[in-house]
Amino acid sequence: MNKKPEVLLPVLTNLATDYRVYKMSKSLSNLGYQPIVLCDKPKNKLGEDWQDIQIKFVVNESHMDGFFKIWVKFIIKLFPIFLRTKSKLWIVEDCPALMLAALIGRLRGVQVIYDSHEIFLETPEVKRSPLKRIFWKFWHDGGLKWVKKMIVVSPDSKEFFENQFKHIHFLIMPNVPFSPNPVSEPRIPGSFDKHAVVLIFQGYLRAENNFKSLIMVLQKHKGYQLLIVGDGHEKGNIQNYINEAGVQNQVKMPGILPFGDLKAWTGQANIGIHLVRPWSLNIDRTWHNKIFDYIHAGLPVLMGDTVALRTLLTKHRVGIIVNPDDEKDIERGINELIENYSFYQENCRRAALEWNWDFFEILLGEFIREGDASINEMRVSPE
Fold first, then answer.
1. Long-range contacts formed by 304-308: CB under 8 A, 24+ apart
2. Are 15 and 42 in contact (CB under 8 A)?
3. For residue range 111-159, what is the model confidence (pLDDT) as tens digits?
4. pLDDT at 356
5. Which of 7, 170, 246, 343 is most buried when burial is the number of CB atoms within 10 A of its CB?
6. Residues facing 273 on adjacent strands
7. Is the pTM of this model over 0.70?
8. Angle in degrees, 0-180, between the axes of helices 67-84 and 98-108, rounded to the nearest 10
């Protein structure tokens, strides 16, 4: 049997919760490659899903314990790996390894593909610090000058990058779940009253997601319940909002969960929450994975007003846009979704048939092989 050709995936991430890196690894394996994830040590225990994926902890610390220090160690240790590897394909997951991979890959004749999870220079962590922005702009834009192929998560993010880097060929690959499967019955002990309207938010807890107005809506509607699945710097403020509004019995906050466990929580809910404010280009132009998790669970989505979300709704009416800062508009949106629930749920079902990872996996295989003879030569047929 021919040995599968290796593909390196360098990334700094909490691997336990990074569903995109997992899906990319599974797809590469399905397409006849041997993915090797090069990363920092995850903060949380890896779930069983990762057992078949080859992982190399380049540093035995998590970037969450001090990003810049761990990033420097990561880059230093990646350098000899990139120089010695026989792999002819590297898929760089987000920005931290981009410039190093692009430069050495160019010198060694390796195909380097940048998988951009977001518009990195427009993320809150980078945007808020002028010094960080100067450094990462040099690293990010310098790397993209040497890259010929790039994966993005939405049509609007493609347009953003395309205007700046006209030499790059793009693939739109949203962070969608695998092919839709029926949502299982809720299986978590102590679940909410089945007759309540259950809202769910999953993801990183940041101020850009307006929890205060949503929690004030809960105060007015005792039949509304809220699941908040995730963690982040806004957690303390959210807990204060809950206590001030006196809605402790209407909210559950299980914290960070492995992606394999998320389905059980979405299976309890009726409506997905994505009340973002478009304060940065990253938020305004990208599709976040939580939207598609909701859609695959059959949950209509209550959304903030962004360019990317308006584009999404032109394709499938899977939810409604409201003003995240207006309690009455949030109430109006929830009522609209409840009153026309079967209409929105059917749209979610149809959208899931199109927006699923298995479909985009086929496009990924074509994208990798396109215009690169060395990749075509090294690839073997999937088992």
1. 304/210, 304/274, 304/275, 304/276, 304/277, 304/278, 305/278, 306/276, 306/278, 307/156, 307/278, 308/154, 308/155, 308/156, 308/157, 308/284
2. yes
3. 999 999 999 999 888 988 999 999 999 999 999 999 999 999 999 999 9
4. 94
5. 7
6. 302
7. yes
8. 10
